[in-house]
Every structure is written in structure tokens, then in C-alpha cells.
Amino acid sequence: MLTVERQELILSMVKARKVVTIHELVEETGASESTIRRDLTELESANKLKRIHGGASALQRRSEEPTVAEKTVKNNYEKQLIAKQAADILEEGDCIFLDAGTTTFEMIPFLTNKKVVVVTNGLDSLSALIEHDIETYVLGGAVKRGTRAFVGRHAVQMLQTFRFDKAFIGTNGIGLEDGFTTPDPQEAFVKETAISLARESFVLADHTKFGETAFSHFASLDKATIITSAETDQSHLEKYKQRTTVKVVTA
């Protein structure tokens, strides 16, 4: 099979399945693992797909945002590891902002007995925080249907009345040049404001977020510490460590 034919087959598989493993590509093409890795590197350089740990995924459109239900089932164990590491950073009496993301949501069970005060813009987070008997304030404003987050002018106005020891933020993309990004400008403004009001900020991100760029920028890399997992390509992480602090969680 010619290189161009093999790469066209790889792209068609990625388009159809969204995520493919190197093993699947080897089986389908009959090529060696080293050849497939070389193809993936070339295709990523041509901005036709994204390399991930053990395979490749389709590029996400900048304004496209999965719903909470879609995001919850993806990389859930990895998100729990990251969330536990984030919760371990907390000190008794901390006042924190908890963003309306699925990874930040996973922090909530680990906040029990931490004696922290939480401000959140997550509708689902509100219910979980109350169930865990955690002192909680919720922002007002419009609720986004897909992400179930409070956004808009009223949310930001209330947010600006608080000051935080730490802010924990979710993201859709992390890029070396583009920094932290998310599809919705209104959510981006909430995230940006929360970071500006916190002594320390942490962005919680599983391995799929690196190298992605969504529509709306909300912070440069140096504005927050990144907490991720060992699933993230280590060679990529070295580049990010030159721009900001990166904490890598292992199982």
C-alpha cells in the first residue's frame, strides 16, 4: 500500500470512529507500528488529526462543545485521579471557585471534611456540594443547556464580589501558543474572571485537551498550574513545563 493510500485510510478511520488506536491501524493497514507512528506524526503536522496516547483522534471544531453527558463518560477514571490530586492541594478554611466542568465536578467527593467554602457556576455541582454538606454559594445568571453552567452578566457581577484562595478551572483546549481555550465566550469570561480573583489557579485537564484550541481564549499558560495525568504524552509535557507549572498524577 502506498503512503498516500495508507494515510487516506487512516484519515477515513479517524473520521468514522473519532478515536482509533495504533493497534487498530496496524491491523487495518498491514503496516508496522513504526510506520503508523510516522504516518500519524506527518498527519498531525499537516493539521489533519490529533495524536493521543496510543493512537489518534479527530480534530474538534473550535466552536463545538460536547454536552455534560457526553463528557462525563470520557476518561472518567483519569478525571478522578486528577480531581483527587487537586483536592489534596486544599488547606482547611480555603475559599475556592469550582468551575462547571466534569473534571472539577469529580473533586466534590474529595472535599468532604476539608472545611472549605465553595463558589460554583455549575448547576450539577451545586446539588452534589449540598449532598456532601459543603458550604456553597452559587452564581446566578442564565444556565447553558449543554454544559449546565451559569453564565452571563449576572453571573460575572456576583462572581466579582468574591475573592478566592484557589480557583479550579476546566478547559477544552490547551495550546503552547493559544493557552487555555473553551468554545463559549460567555463561559470563557467566567473562567477568566475567576482566575483574576484567585491567589492561585489550577486548570484540570485530561490528556485529550493538549494540543486542542477552542474558539475562546480565557488565560495564558502562565496564569494557572496545570494538573493532568500520566496519560499525557511526556514529550509534549516538557514543552508546557517551560511555560508553566505542570503537576502529573500517576495511578
Write up what this structure looks like.
By secondary structure, the protein is of the alpha/beta class. It has ten helices and 15 strands. The strands form four sheets. Strands 6-5-4-9-12-14-15 form a seven-stranded parallel β-sheet, sandwiched between helices. Strand 4 (95-98), helix 6 and strand 5 (117-120) form a beta-alpha-beta unit. 40% of the residues are buried.
Summed up, what is this model?
The protein has helices spanning 3-17, 22-29, 33-45, 68-72, 76-88, 102-105, 123-131, 153-159, 185-196, 234-241, and strands spanning 19-21, 50-52, 55-57, 95-98, 117-120, 135-138, 142-143, 150-151, 164-170, 173-175, 179-182, 198-204, 216-219, 225-229, 246-249. It is of the alpha/beta class and 251 residues long.
Unreliable runs, pLDDT <50, ≥5 residues?
A: 67-73
Main sheet summary: 7 strands, parallel
The best one-word shape is elongated
Terminus-to-terminus distance: 40 Å
Q: Helix count, per DSSP?
A: 10
The computed structural class is: alpha/beta
The count of DSSP E runs of length 2 or more, i.e. the number of strands, is 15
Task: Give the strand content.
Answer: 15-25%
Helix content: 25-40%
